[in-house]
Amino acid sequence: QVQLVESGGGLVQAGGSLRLSCAASGRIFSIANMGWYRQTPGKQRELVATITAGGTTNYATSVKGRFTISRDNAKNTVSLQMNSLKPEDTAVYYCHGRFDYGTYIDDYWGQGTQVTVSS
Fold first, then answer.
1. Nearest alpha carbon to residue 92 among 42, 29, 54
2. Which residues are CB-neighbours of 103 under 8 A, at least 6 positions away?
3. What is the model's pLDDT at position 64?
4. Residues 35, 48: contact at Cβ < 8 Å?
Protein backbone atom coordinates (compact mmCIF):
# COMPACT_ATOMS: atom_id res chain seq x y z
CA GLN A 1 0.00 0.00 0.00
CA VAL A 2 1.12 3.54 -0.77
CA GLN A 3 0.18 6.83 0.81
CA LEU A 4 0.41 10.23 -0.87
CA VAL A 5 0.22 13.15 1.52
CA GLU A 6 -0.22 16.67 0.18
CA SER A 7 0.51 19.96 1.86
CA GLY A 8 0.67 23.64 1.01
CA GLY A 9 -2.84 24.57 -0.05
CA GLY A 10 -4.61 27.64 1.26
CA LEU A 11 -6.09 31.03 0.48
CA VAL A 12 -4.21 33.57 -1.61
CA GLN A 13 -5.04 36.75 -3.47
CA ALA A 14 -4.98 36.86 -7.25
CA GLY A 15 -1.44 37.36 -8.48
CA GLY A 16 0.01 35.57 -5.49
CA SER A 17 1.91 32.31 -5.19
CA LEU A 18 1.53 28.98 -3.46
CA ARG A 19 3.66 25.87 -3.37
CA LEU A 20 2.11 22.42 -3.10
CA SER A 21 4.09 19.42 -1.98
CA CYS A 22 3.33 15.72 -1.99
CA ALA A 23 5.26 12.93 -0.31
CA ALA A 24 4.85 9.26 -1.15
CA SER A 25 5.45 6.56 1.44
CA GLY A 26 4.79 2.89 1.90
CA ARG A 27 5.54 0.04 -0.48
CA ILE A 28 7.47 1.82 -3.22
CA PHE A 29 9.59 0.11 -5.85
CA SER A 30 9.69 2.65 -8.63
CA ILE A 31 7.58 5.68 -9.41
CA ALA A 32 6.97 6.28 -13.08
CA ASN A 33 4.92 9.44 -13.45
CA MET A 34 3.91 11.87 -10.73
CA GLY A 35 1.56 14.75 -11.21
CA TRP A 36 -1.05 17.18 -10.03
CA TYR A 37 -4.69 17.28 -11.00
CA ARG A 38 -7.47 19.58 -9.86
CA GLN A 39 -11.22 19.46 -9.54
CA THR A 40 -14.00 21.95 -8.94
CA PRO A 41 -17.57 21.06 -7.93
CA GLY A 42 -19.58 19.61 -10.78
CA LYS A 43 -16.57 19.21 -13.06
CA GLN A 44 -14.28 16.35 -13.94
CA ARG A 45 -10.83 16.14 -12.48
CA GLU A 46 -8.37 17.73 -14.89
CA LEU A 47 -4.65 17.46 -15.44
CA VAL A 48 -2.55 20.35 -14.20
CA ALA A 49 0.99 19.05 -14.65
CA THR A 50 2.89 15.78 -14.78
CA ILE A 51 6.54 14.81 -14.59
CA THR A 52 8.27 11.56 -15.50
CA ALA A 53 11.05 9.92 -13.54
CA GLY A 54 13.47 11.36 -16.07
CA GLY A 55 12.14 14.88 -15.57
CA THR A 56 10.03 15.33 -18.67
CA THR A 57 7.16 17.68 -17.86
CA ASN A 58 3.72 18.27 -19.29
CA TYR A 59 1.41 21.16 -18.42
CA ALA A 60 -2.17 22.10 -19.05
CA THR A 61 -2.34 25.04 -21.43
CA SER A 62 -4.05 27.16 -18.79
CA VAL A 63 -1.09 26.96 -16.40
CA LYS A 64 1.89 27.03 -18.77
CA GLY A 65 4.32 29.74 -17.84
CA ARG A 66 2.79 30.16 -14.37
CA PHE A 67 3.16 26.75 -12.71
CA THR A 68 6.30 24.64 -12.37
CA ILE A 69 6.32 20.97 -11.40
CA SER A 70 9.39 19.31 -9.91
CA ARG A 71 10.21 16.06 -8.18
CA ASP A 72 12.87 14.57 -5.96
CA ASN A 73 13.25 10.92 -6.88
CA ALA A 74 15.42 10.18 -3.85
CA LYS A 75 12.76 11.50 -1.47
CA ASN A 76 9.72 10.34 -3.48
CA THR A 77 8.27 13.82 -3.51
CA VAL A 78 6.66 16.04 -6.11
CA SER A 79 6.00 19.76 -5.85
CA LEU A 80 4.01 22.34 -7.74
CA GLN A 81 5.08 25.97 -7.63
CA MET A 82 2.11 28.12 -8.59
CA ASN A 83 2.73 31.76 -9.48
CA SER A 84 0.49 34.50 -10.83
CA LEU A 85 -2.52 32.69 -9.47
CA LYS A 86 -5.95 33.50 -10.86
CA PRO A 87 -9.41 33.01 -9.35
CA GLU A 88 -10.04 30.29 -11.94
CA ASP A 89 -7.21 28.28 -10.38
CA THR A 90 -9.43 27.75 -7.34
CA ALA A 91 -9.94 24.00 -6.91
CA VAL A 92 -9.06 20.98 -4.87
CA TYR A 93 -5.63 19.84 -6.03
CA TYR A 94 -4.77 16.15 -6.00
CA CYS A 95 -1.37 14.53 -6.12
CA HIS A 96 -1.10 11.44 -8.33
CA GLY A 97 1.56 8.78 -8.61
CA ARG A 98 1.95 5.86 -11.00
CA PHE A 99 3.93 3.15 -9.23
CA ASP A 100 5.79 0.50 -11.20
CA TYR A 101 6.22 -2.89 -9.54
CA GLY A 102 7.73 -4.62 -12.54
CA THR A 103 4.90 -6.97 -13.42
CA TYR A 104 2.13 -4.47 -12.76
CA ILE A 105 1.45 -0.77 -12.28
CA ASP A 106 -0.70 0.86 -9.64
CA ASP A 107 -2.13 4.38 -9.47
CA TYR A 108 -2.54 6.23 -6.19
CA TRP A 109 -4.07 9.57 -5.28
CA GLY A 110 -3.62 11.93 -2.39
CA GLN A 111 -6.54 13.15 -0.31
CA GLY A 112 -6.58 16.57 -1.98
CA THR A 113 -5.71 20.05 -0.78
CA GLN A 114 -7.87 23.13 -1.28
CA VAL A 115 -6.47 26.11 -3.16
CA THR A 116 -8.60 29.24 -3.12
CA VAL A 117 -7.64 32.35 -5.07
CA SER A 118 -9.57 35.49 -4.23
CA SER A 119 -10.07 38.30 -6.71
1. 42
2. none
3. 98
4. yes
